[in-house]
């Protein structure tokens, strides 16, 4: 069901167990639904979660530092963003595509603003300190 790459691991799964792993250029999710005594084709539900790509590792002076990016802004991740970002995103989206509203946010549909907001840094809407505030 999984292919030779995962055979050793799927043998460890109990009924109801889930295994997610790369096989070739696909990310597979396998769920054991049948008992271990069932034929292999009746034991698993196999779903392709998405595609994956692997690149060779670079060692030495040419190696770039590993940077794990923060989650992009989306409607589901909205609550994990700083207060200023959330309030600004809400204001822009409430104004988006509104007839009769005279501001720049009203000129674009909400879908376009959601795409724009997904590229913003978490500190995008933070207010910069004045020199006096910084010196305190």
Question: What does the model show?
Answer:
The chain is α+β, with helices and mostly antiparallel strands. The protein is 26% helix and 15% strand. The chain is built from five helices and three strands; from the N terminus they run H-E-E-H-E-H-H-H. The chain has a three-stranded antiparallel β-sheet. Helix 3 packs antiparallel against helix 4. The radius of gyration is 24 Å and the shape is elongated. The termini are far apart. 9% of the residues are buried.
Describe what is shown at a glance.
With 136 residues, the chain is of the alpha+beta class. The protein contains five helices and three strands.
Overall shape = elongated
Secondary-structure element series: HEEHEHHH
Quaternary status: single chain
Helix-strand category: alpha+beta
The number of helices is 5
Strand content: 15-25%
Q: Gap between N and C termini, in Å?
A: 64 Å
Task: Note the main sheet.
Answer: 3 strands, antiparallel
Low-confidence segments, ≥5 residues, pLDDT <50? none
Would you report the number of β strands?
Answer: 3
**Which range best describes the helical content: under 10%, 10-25%, 25-40%, 40-55%, 55-70% or over 70%?**
25-40%
What is the alpha-carbon Rg in Å?
24 Å
Give me the side-by-side strand order of the main sheet: 1-2-3
Summed over residues and divided by their number, the pLDDT gives a mean of 80
Secondary-structure topology with pairs:
Elements: H1 7-10, E1 18-23, E2 26-32, H2 40-43, E3 44-51, H3 83-95, H4 110-118, H5 131-135
Antiparallel strand pairs: 1-2, 2-3
Helix pairs in contact: 3-4
């Amino acid at each position: 069901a999984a292919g030779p790459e995962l055979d050793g691991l799927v043998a460890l799964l109990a009924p109801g167990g889930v295994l997610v792993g790369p096989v070739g250029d696909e990310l597979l999710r396998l769920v054991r639904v049948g008992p271990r005594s069932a034929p292999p084709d009746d034991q698993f539900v196999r779903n392709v979660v998405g595609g994956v790509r692997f690149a060779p590792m670079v060692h030495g002076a040419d190696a770039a530092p590993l940077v794990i990016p923060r989650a992009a802004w989306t409607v589901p991740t909205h609550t994990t963003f700083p207060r200023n970002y959330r309030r600004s995103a809400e204001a822009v989206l409430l104004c988006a595509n509104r007839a009769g509203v005279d501001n720049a946010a009203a000129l674009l549909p909400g879908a376009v603003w959601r795409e724009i907001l997904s590229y913003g840094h978490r500190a995008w809407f933070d207010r910069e300190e004045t020199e006096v505030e910084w010196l305190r």
